[in-house]
Amino acid sequence: MKQSILIITLLFMISNGIAQDSQIPSTKYICPPCNMSCDEVEHDGPGICTDCNMVLIRKDLSKTIAFYLQDGVEVLDFAGPMEVFVYSGYKVFTVSATQEPIISQGTLKVIPDYSIENAPKADILAFFGGNSGAASQNKDVIKWVQKQEDVQYHFSVCTGAFVLAEAGLLDGKTATTFHSALNSLEKDYPKIDVKKDARFVDNGKVITTAGVSAGIDGALHLVAKLQGLNAAKRTAYYMEYDNWKPGDGLILSNDSPYDPLANASFFREFEGKYEHEDGSQIIVAYNGEKENLQALINGIPYPVYHESEDMFSNVNSEPIYFKRNDANQIIGYSLTQNGAVYKKL
Questions:
Q1: Which of 42, 70, 190, 260 has its CA 20 to 30 A from that of 18?
Q2: Which of 133, 73, 132 is nearest to 108 (CA)?
Q3: Contact at 8 Å (CB) between 5 and 19?
């Protein structure tokens, strides 16, 4: 009975957004896969891996993603989302019809990790444009796609949507693709509602994006769905993808990660000059464009993300606890729940 109550309590916390980068007791953290010995190390809390300097992520939120690549695949179509997913802590492997080397855009040689004959199961299947007909018109590839079990999400970039369409995964759904292929998708697959002005389309478990760079937006959106908006913001910050506009797509699912944020007046309560742990001073201000606080430290601006109430977090997923006095005014912050208070000046 006690165990059932605990499970229900944890599920309630997650469904209410508290799990967005907040610390949950006994949760383990790992670094994103980097093929170093630290891949096997588990940590008791968020922070930075001391071996590879990557931000630690919750182990239970990590996913395995299969990137299907065909000869002639567009480089940025898959490389952009790969950067997003790997930094966000997911294990990515490549699959092709065979394990023979393929050439991306006639320039980059890629040796697939697996063929469709020996590829392991994945939580997410991803498909990309650039000679996508080599995949969508290959009956063996389509059979492989259709027989995959327990896939949590299907994801496509550019004309990778044609693979999902041929497999029947877009029937009765809304989708998009590369701008020059929109009419073809609409004509060849009349069961699909093709949107011609969307950066990405989220049907819930199937996400399609427009071409090339739009794949980065779609990948960040999926990270936000899986780990919370702050996790996606951290990844975009790491990639210096300053032009990302969270939620700039067609979202048809009921699990949008873009819930209304606290208004600007709430954030401005925390603005001001504060002591810094290294003895210097920091300036905290509200960044309306990014909808989060920003700390100016030694001339460099760092985003500060709101978690819940007066708890925030930094780019390394480490918590920041702002403190109030009896008059409900912000007087400083701590880096641990009951740690030293760095005063507001």
A1: 42
A2: 73
A3: no
Tokens of 84: 């997003």
Q: Span 211-234, mean pLDDT? A: 96
77 contacts 129 by C-beta, under 8 angstroms: yes
Residue 343, strand partner residues: 332
SS3 for 155? strand
pTM (two decimals): 0.87
Q: What is the largest CA-CA distance in the chain?
A: 69
Average pLDDT over residues 94-102: 98
CB of 231 within 8 A of CB of 20? Answer: yes
HSE, CB side, 13 Å, CA atoms: give it for residue 304: 27
Instruction: Tell me how far apart the alpha carbons of residues 300 and 318 are, in angstroms, rounded to a whole number.
Output: 18
pLDDT for position 306: 94
What does DSSP say about strands 272-275 and 281-287: parallel, antiparallel, or unpaired? antiparallel
